[in-house]
Design a protein that fits this description.
- 68% of the residues lie in helices and 7% in strands.
- The chain has 166 residues and is mainly α.
- The chain has one domain.
- The protein has a two-stranded antiparallel ribbon.
- β1 and β2 (44-49) form a beta hairpin.
- The longest helix is centred in the middle third of the chain and has 26 residues, at 85-110.
- The two termini are 24 Å apart.
Length: 166
Amino acid sequence: MLKRAARTVATLLLMVMLVAALRVLADIPLAKPLAIHFDASGNPDGWAPAWLALSVMPAMAFGLLLLFALLPKIDPLGGNLLRSWHATQTIMLAVLGLLAAIQLMVAAQALSAPVPVAPVVMTVVGLLFVVNGNVMGKLRWNYSIGIRTPWTLANERVWDKTHRFA
């Protein structure tokens, strides 16, 4: 479902995540605990072994790419997903960007680089909302991506009005 440019960007984001993981793993032991969760002030409050901390985001990104490839085949209204491919791939790339930003923050923290976690996370999540909100009105009626409430799934007109409002 991804067009060539989106496929290139998705591949680059996945490669950035993998390179960051390999760079950190080259310098630290696999079992060393790394910060993976931060409080509202940006202080670490959750830890995981390095191998796990650095493999979760690339694995999620790869799973997301597989899911987006399968959605048109498993969604009963998959044709509508293909009709709104621009909005769908924009949403997917925005989520991949969020995952890449989190991966880079975890990698930077592991290498003891000063990262202002709270402002970075707020900025990236804000950008995710802006990008997704901008393309929400272009999503065609489907059962996989969008505001999926009983009334939007029951009526295409309600779907369109709800997503344009969002």
